[in-house]
Amino acid sequence: MEALVHWFSQNLSQYISPEGAVFIISMIPLLELRGGLLAASLLKISAAKAIPLCIVGNIIPIPFILLFIRQIFKVLKKTKLFRGLVMKLEDRAMRKSDQVKKYEFWGLMLFVGIPLPGTGAWTGSLIASLLEIDIKKSSLAIFCGIIMATVIMYIVSYGLVGNLVR
Q1: 29 CB-near residues (< 8 Å, 6+ apart)
Q2: What is the residue extent of each domain of the chain?
């Protein structure tokens, strides 16, 4: 992930402001808020600026995933080109859904909040949508998870990595 963050940080910041690069990185699946905060620390953006940018950037795609992903997947499964990809994404998300199924709100919050590879708001939203968890409940759980991930990644990005870079 660090290599991706570094690549996006370098390439995006050539064309837009470092803050804009951090915002966009926070919207990208796999990188999300984790990558945004890491990029912000590498680009020497203060945590006070970076945290709101990363949170908003990470939140923007969530309602669209929760509301529309099942319908989009349904249409894409009908095409030969995307059927395999959609089935792979669904399968991968459902393999990670055991804790979310069992504990719903708390499971979804922890899934999104603990910054491990393959977890985060995008995958959490996909799982919530596929499991048909109530949109209000899933939105709140995902938001709480994003806040939890923010705290963890702030400590990692600005504490550990920030001290190593300086």
Answers
A1: 120, 122
A2: 2-58+153-165, 61-147
